[in-house]
Specification:
The termini are far apart. It contains no helices and four strands. 2% of the residues are buried. The protein has a four-stranded antiparallel beta sheet, with no helix packed on it. The protein has a domain of 40 residues. It is mainly beta and 58 residues long.
Length: 58
């Protein structure tokens, strides 16, 4: 790792959890039971792709 910044992520909600995934993505969890998957290297490192997945309890 070089320590160089490749992209930034900003959230307007309070994030409780963050996990670094093997494929280089970062998953964030918030208090609204959502998971946000951040792909810092998407599209050559210039675009940010976010996927917001809502969780429901049985």
């Amino acid at each position: 790792m070089t320590g160089d910044e490749i992209s930034r992520f900003a959230s307007y909600d309070h994030l409780n959890v963050a996990a670094w995934m093997k494929n280089g993505n970062v998953a964030f969890g918030d208090t609204k039971e959502s998971i946000i998957v951040f792909e810092p290297l998407a599209s050559g490192g210039s675009d940010i792709s976010l996927t917001n997945i809502s969780l429901t309890r049985p």
